[in-house]
Design a protein that fits this description.
Blueprint lengths: L1 H25 L12 E9 L2 E15 L6 E11 L9 E5 L8 H8 L2 E4 L2 E4 L9 E6 L7 E2 L5 H4 L2 H18 L7 E6 L1 H15 L6 E5 L12 H6 L1 H11 L11 H21 L6 H15 L15 H8 L28 H11 L41 H14 L13 H7 L4 E7 L7 H10 L2 H4 L2 E6 L9 H18 L1
Parallel strand pairs: 4-7, 4-9, 9-10, 10-11, 11-12
Antiparallel strand pairs: 1-2, 2-3, 3-7, 3-8, 5-6
Helix pairs in contact: 4-5, 5-13, 7-8
């Protein structure tokens, strides 16, 4: 009898010890069972002066062949959601550009609840999360997103396939998260702005309503030219004058303030320069000399650097020539292409903090390198042969073109230095999406010191838009570069504008 009681006590002790062990192990962080299983965690942050509680979800969605259901790629996302207090909260899908860029720049510089500050992340007071749920998207070949097989890469690494796959991601994400009734907004930067316009049309064509687009430093997504060819060539001088003033390169009688310099440059462009370009073959030598003198006066370039035959200055020519006089006794110094106030690119000191956040704070445990913040060479490659970066393999063509046509367009785009090549007919964009949904609203954002999308040409497009587009498209020029939100005051202003757009059109 004593033996039986002792045996019962030992059994109870064993059960207690096993239960305690289970409790201990269940309290430890557990990695996802595979790279595609989403991990959901609970968080809170001080945003806009208030404590906001939210969930974060990190995972990958399979991009499947509709006929066979075979996954051809896995697209990584980070989603932030706040429990709704009434109607469904809107969802904004966000990506960067490249092509071949991950979403971390927008994610941790303006959009998400965490702001990268050097080697640490802090609560982001300007996050869009109070106004909308957020899904930060890494297209295939960026971040943790990958094609399912190497031979599937070409399906994603091109303008057409990129739009199709991101459209499919949004369709799938909505269904898998029960968000079919949520108002949808799309936001993209640079190359991603065009992607947002094209995806907006593609979703509308599938019967999925898009409430708004936020197009950041990447144009309007318009396929018509609303500005004359001469003015399109001439008006960028206004933005070059802004940069020249920043470096003290304009002539003394112009060095007053930014607004006055821009006003004077624009007046000359409209009254003299654009008309001269419209009759360039008929100009006398004296007229050409006068135009060259004024171009030098406004841009800070020496007269001898300006071609009297074409009377034009390309973005690359301006950047390489403006500070040429300072390059005699050291490394070449020129305005940085994405923010002409700088002469060197910004550092990447926040990469380790962001990677720790993904793998530990959000609990997304994967051995894959995060492409964009980590080198692909950190991972395994069969036979040691690593693939080229996505942008080096990108197919810009939207139709079948001859090799010599592709080569000529790429060479011309490289010579000008004003953005990626345009090969083939444009994909349906903003106008086409608005034709399907006239209630959609669009915010076009540009940075004053961005060499890719000059504010002056944006303002001119805004003036020339037909009334039906002018009523639904808003253009705004912000102080800053390509990533204008890197300036703290601009980040706050830009975020207020985005949240106002969302709240008014949800």
């Amino acid at each position: 009898m004593k033996f039986v009681n002792r045996q019962k006590r030992n059994s109870r002790n064993l059960i207690f010890l096993l239960s305690a062990a289970i409790l201990v192990f269940s309290s430890l962080p557990v990695a996802a069972r595979d790279d595609n299983e989403p991990v959901v965690t609970q968080h809170q942050a001080q945003i806009a002066g208030k404590l906001l509680k939210y969930t974060a979800e990190a995972g990958r969605i399979a991009i499947r062949d509709v006929e066979t259901a075979e996954p051809h790629g896995y697209m990584f996302y980070t989603a932030y959601r706040v429990p709704p207090s009434g109607a469904s909260r809107p969802v904004t899908f966000v990506w960067n550009g490249g092509p071949g860029a991950d979403s971390s720049l927008l994610h941790f510089s303006v959009v998400g609840p965490k702001l990268a500050e050097g080697s640490r992340l802090a609560d982001n007071p300007d996050s869009w999360l109070p106004a909308t749920d957020l899904v930060l998207v890494d297209p295939i070949g960026t971040g943790f997103s990958r094609p399912a097989k190497a031979e599937y890469g070409a399906e994603f690494y091109g303008t057409v396939g990129d739009v199709d796959s991101v459209t499919e991601f949004i369709r799938a994400w909505r269904l898998l998260h029960g968000a079919e009734d949520a108002p949808i907004f799309l936001a993209g930067e640079s190359w991603g702005a065009g992607r947002a316009a094209h995806v907006g049309f593609a979703l509308e064509k599938r019967g999925i309503t898009v409430s708004g687009l936020v197009l950041i430093s990447g144009g309007w997504g318009l396929n018509k030219n609303y500005v004359s060819r001469e003015l399109q060539s001439a008006i960028p001088i206004v933005d070059m004058a802004s940069t020249a003033l920043f470096y003290g390169k304009t002539v003394p009688d112009l060095e007053k303030n930014l607004a006055e310099v821009r006003q004077a440059a624009e007046k000359w462009v409209r009254e003299t320069y654009a008309p001269a370009l419209s009759r360039i073959d008929k100009l006398s030598d004296a007229e050409r000399d006068a135009v060259v003198a004024q171009l030098s006066r406004f841009t800070g370039l020496p007269k001898e650097q300006i071609d009297p035959k074409t009377l034009t200055i390309s973005p690359r020519q301006f950047r390489t020539g403006l500070l040429k006089d300072q390059n005699a006794n050291g490394p070449n110094k020129e305005p940085y292409i994405f923010d002409m106030r700088r002469t060197t690119p910004p550092g990447n000191g926040d990469a380790s903090a962001i990677l720790h956040y993904f793998r530990h704070d959000l609990g997304y445990r994967t051995s894959l390198p995060y492409i964009g913040l980590e080198e692909m060479e950190q991972g395994f490659a069969p036979a040691g042969t690593y693939p080229e970066p996505v942008n080096a393999r990108w197919d810009y063509a939207t139709a079948k073109l001859k090799p010599e046509e592709v080569k000529a367009v790429i060479e011309e785009a490289s010579r000008k230095g004003d953005g990626p090549p345009r090969l083939g007919p444009p994909l349906p964009g903003t106008e086409d999406a608005l034709a399907l949904n006239p209630r959609m609203k669009v915010l076009v954002a540009a940075g004053l010191y961005d060499s890719f999308l000059p504010c002056a040409i944006g303002a001119e497009i805004d003036r020339q838009l037909p009334s039906n587009l002018h009523q639904v498209i808003t253009f705004k020029c912000y102080v800053g570069g390509h990533a204008m939100y890197k300036d703290a005051a601009t980040r706050a202003e830009f975020s207020r504008d985005v949240k106002a757009l969302i709240e008014a059109n949800r």
